[in-house]
Amino acid sequence: MSSGGAVQLVDIAQCPTPESLAEAIKGAMQTNGFLFILNHGLEKQAEEMFAISEEFFGQETAEEKLRCAYANNRGYTRVSQEVLDPTQPAPDLKEGFNTGYIAPGSPPVPSHPLPARMAKHTEALCQFQHDCFDFCQRLLEAFAIILDLDRNFFKANHVHDESDVSILRFLHYPEVPPGVQVSPNRAGAHSDYGSLTLLFQRSNGGEGLQILPSTEPLDSKNWKDTGVVDNALLVNIGDALELWSGAIFKSTLHRVVLPTPLPAEGIPERFSMAWFNQPKPSASLLTVVPTSQITEHDLARMERKGAKPGVDITASEHLLARLASTYKQLPQNAEA
Ligand SMILES: O=C(O)CCC(=O)C(=O)O
Ligand SMILES: [Fe+2]
């Protein structure tokens, strides 16, 4: 099945076994590393999370945001705080809140301060994190099957406990009122850092995500709209899995843009949420296939991200290096 755009669509209800899932996803993961998944089972929770997000970004006090400001990849980031594309230092027109691991319990225990409007939902947040992690484990088993590895190889390198550095991120792109001139950059071109990202978008005001297919030359401007598919979850490969798999799975550049020219009536606000699934910090990202199989083009793509296949780097070292490059452009804003 296809969404008609640059990204394929798979109905996971048609894939009851890990083998059938592997078969259904392998083409997309090896071309652009982006895939829409229907019937993922997280639909109702995602709606609830969007409601929490709207309340937080719409009503939270400045004091609470400041109390929970960004540190160690967790907490609140202001509009223009991040520069996702270091080659084009235009600040991103978005604000975000990163939630780190929340331990289950009565009540659940967050690993960092949560603002009041999130703290009252810790149970739902904790459950959603858990279910996103489980969904990724299902995909990771399929990835191991595709590469002919022990089917538990990737799963065993991910754990959801106090040591987990995976992030549930809430994103808000403020509206652009009529007549205001802004850069078209809602989120600069980047690839994600972890193993997998689950991205939740909404059809209402959700357009704007584009990918640069990984077959394109490095200087290509041939960006493609992903579109938004109602109720579907968008999965994409991150740099850790690209490195691990010797670029058999592609971690593809993507960005969020405003339309150019801006319509006279302005642009509505946009909400999205991402589960950034991370391997356990001590996991070795040593490439699991012979590095001689990697094409020159993929090697050049990886080099640009600072990734060196065949080097025994830990997931933690890799993540710290990528975060440093995202936040270094605006030192006066960095609160970490
Ligand atoms: O908001 C979106 O649709 C994409 C956000 C994204 O790519 C990211 O935060 O890594
Ligand atoms: Fe991303």
TrEMBL record:
- Family annotation (InterPro entries): DIOX_N (IPR026992), IPNS-like_FE2OG_OXY (IPR044861), IPNS-like_sf (IPR027443), Iron_ascorbate_oxido_reductase (IPR050231), Oxoglu/Fe-dep_dioxygenase_dom (IPR005123)
Task: Report keywords, A-Z.
Answer: Iron, Metal-binding, Oxidoreductase
Upper lineage: Eukaryota, Fungi, Dikarya, Basidiomycota, Pucciniomycotina
**Metal-binding listed as a keyword:** yes
Name all Fe2OG dioxygenase domain ranges. Answer: 164-279
Lineage: superkingdom: Eukaryota
State the Gene Ontology terms under molecular function: metal ion binding; oxidoreductase activity
| Pfam assignment, any one | 2OG-FeII_Oxy
- Put simply, this protein is called Fe2OG dioxygenase domain-containing protein
